[in-house]
C-alpha cells in the first residue's frame, strides 16, 4: 500500500506526538503507512502525490485570518506551502482530509471568508449532518446528530461555491465540507479523544482559547458528552483511499 501523509504544524512535542498517535489510532494505519512531516520544523519539500494514498492535516497554532503583519516567517512559509500543494490536490481531486487548521487551508485556497465570527471555546458540541452529508460515504453510519470536540479562534463565515456543506453546528455553521469528490475538511477534531484534547487544553493554556481561571471548567466541558463517532470518519477515509 502507498502511505498516507500527515502534515503537522504543532511546535510543542507533547501534543504533536500525541496527535500522531491519535491519527494512527483512529485511522487504523501503521506507522509505515502514515508518514508524518512537521511543517513548522522546516520546509515541506516536494510532495509526489503519485506515491501517496492520501493526505491528512492536523490542527495547529496558525490562524488564516491573522493580519499579515502579525504572522511569523514560519506561518507565512507554511501557508505558502499549503497553497502550492492544494493547487495540485484540488486540480487532481486528490484524497485530502484537513481537520481544524486543515479547514482553513482549504477554505483560503477556495476563497472562503474566514474570520472570528463563529469562533468556539474548547468544548463538545453537537454537529448535524446535512442532506449531502447523509449521502457522503465518509459519514455513513454516523448519526444525524453527533457530539464532536471543537476549539478554534476563527471559522468559515462564507462557504465558497466550490464547497459542499456536509455537517453544521449551531454556533459555527460550517463544521464539515467537501470540495470535488475527494477533498474534505472539518472544523471539529475527529482525531481527538478525551485524553488527547485534555493534553492540548493543558499545553495551550494561556494561548487565548480560555481565561487562565477557566482551566478546570474547560477540562470539564470536554467531558459533558461522550464523543464516540467522529473517529470513524478518519477510518472511513483511510479505508476508502488506501491504494
UniProtKB/TrEMBL annotation:
Leader sequence segment: none
Highest rank taxon of the organism: Bacteria
Transmembrane segments: none
InterPro entries registered for this protein in UniProt: ChyE-like, Class_I_gatase-like, GATASE
Keyword Protein biosynthesis belongs to the record: no
Family matches, as PROSITE patterns: GATASE_TYPE_1
Protein's UniProt keywords contain Kinase: no
Residue ranges annotated for the Glutamine amidotransferase domain, each copy included: 49-192
UniProt keyword annotations, A-Z: Glutamine amidotransferase
SUPFAM superfamilies linked to this entry: Class I glutamine amidotransferase-like
UniProt cross-references to NCBIfam families, sorted A to Z: PRK07567.1
Protein name in the entry: Glutamine amidotransferase
Phylogenetic placement of the source organism: Bacteria, Bacillati, Actinomycetota, Actinomycetes, Micrococcales
